[in-house]
Amino acid sequence: MYIKRKLKLTYVMILITSFLLLICLSNVFIALTESNSKYDLTGKLGKGNFAFFTELVTENNKLLQKVNSEVLTNPDNFLNHDYLLQLENSSNMKYTGIVTLINDKIDYSSNFIRKDLSEDALTSFNSNSNDQFKKKIIILWKQDFTTSNKDKGSIYYIIDIDSYKKLFKQNVLIVMVLILIILMATNGIITYFVSKSIVKPLKELDKGAGEILKGNLNYKLDIDSKDEIGEVAETFEEMRLRLKESLEIQNQYEENRKELIASISHDLKTPITSIKGYIEGIKDGVADTPDKMEKYVNTILTKANYMDSLINDLFLYSKLELNKEPFKFQTVDMNIYIQDCVEEISFDLDQSKVELIADVPQKPTLIDIDVQKLKRAIMNIVENSIKYRTDNKLIINIVVKSNNDLVIVEIRDNGKGIPKEALPYIFERFYRADTSRETVIGGSGLGLAIAKKIMDEHSGKIAVSSELNKGTSIFLSFKK
């Protein structure tokens, strides 16, 4: 639930809860009012807001029935003050009373109302001139009767509203305090639970940010929320994971940098040491014959060429890794391109020891490539096959295959093969299955790593399949 919707729902819940509690409180107030009656109201709080008026009507009807009965049977009882007092006490409603008029003169009245009575006001009950009763008392009903002596009389049933107003004023402060307490309690409780669902995740976010600030990228947020805070938490968690991954990559780069420096140092030191040794041999006169001199010079040249090749490969790999090497793509027919590559590479090979074959389809296969860079990748793969060939004649097949989405170039040989445990690492820089790093076989150890970088720039893939003593296949996959 989103926070905006949650706050709206909270507002509605506060209104509804307050309304229900106010209804209950009104019943309590009525109970407080009715508790001043002459009878016990225990168990009558459930009557609702109209309990007072219901009791008033009930008592009215009971008293009126008694009066009507006496009017018909024995109206002279209304001259008996003891009887009238008994009749008055039979009503359970407080602040109600009886007044009788005989021949327009007050004959009997309840004590609480006596000071406010006047014959004129009572006799004008049916008119609009009873102003003195408008604010304090109300005449509920009047019943006329005639005594046995032919005296004209009237009996009035009166309620003292002013007394009920005073009772309300006495209790209204309590009611207002209770209302205030109810509103505060309702708002406080609901706000607490709603704010808890908001504040707790925010504290967790703050704690997570603090852990990241300390460098602890393994701290995982424990927030299970479906609102905006939950979305922020998901974004925060994704940021943490990416930051952790970036740091791991950075650490890996640092390790690779150290390994690269160590590898370069080793690969350069070995031929330099050899060159120095042969030069010192020439200087000391060890090469005292033309044959020895030629041997020493050729060895120095070989080592120098090796160093030159190593530096060139290293420079190219560095530019590829830093995206500093420009690529110029053009659309070519891959079949013709592979045939041209095979002819060019074969020109420098000893055909008696190595045979390079192109196996391409007749139908043109058009793709976008950088002609020079891809040729470098193919030459590196071929040179790698030559370095690790067996004593038998090496046959290298370059096969072009095509499907709906991809063009696949397979470079397959019948050489020594690659150990299974080494396959995942052969495209890494300076990796050699022969960990001794001796330069007897030659090469910079960057050939396949450069090929992979070139394929990455082509948005293609490079893969390997190999089996010891049976041969190796390198697959170059291009999107059409």
Automatic annotation (TrEMBL):
May I have one GO cellular component term?
Answer: plasma membrane
Annotated GO MF terms: ATP binding; phosphorelay sensor kinase activity
What EC number(s) is this enzyme filed under?
2.7.13.3
- Name where it's found: Cell membrane
Q: Which residues cross the membrane?
A: 12-32, 172-194
Sequence ranges assigned to domain HAMP in this UniProt record: 196-248
Check the record and name the Gene3D superfamilies matching this protein.
1.10.287.130, 6.10.340.10, Histidine kinase-like ATPase, C-terminal domain
Name the UniProt key words of this record, in alphabetical order: ATP-binding, Cell membrane, Kinase, Membrane, Nucleotide-binding, Phosphoprotein, Transferase, Transmembrane, Transmembrane helix, Two-component regulatory system
Positions of the Histidine kinase domain = 263-480
Q: Does the keyword Nucleotide-binding apply?
A: yes
Give the reactions, separated by semicolons, that this protein catalyses: ATP + protein L-histidine = ADP + protein N-phospho-L-histidine
Q: Which InterPro entries match?
A: HAMP_dom (IPR003660), HATPase_C_sf (IPR036890), HATPase_dom (IPR003594), His_kinase_dom (IPR005467), HisK_dim/P_dom (IPR003661), HisK_dim/P_sf (IPR036097), HssS/ArlS-like (IPR050398), Sig_transdc_His_kin-like_C (IPR004358)
Q: Which CDD domains match?
A: HAMP, HATPase, HisKA
Q: How does it sit in the membrane?
A: Multi-pass membrane protein
Which PANTHER family does its entry note? SENSOR HISTIDINE KINASE CPXA
Name this protein carries in UniProt:
histidine kinase
Q: Which organism is it from?
A: Clostridium fungisolvens
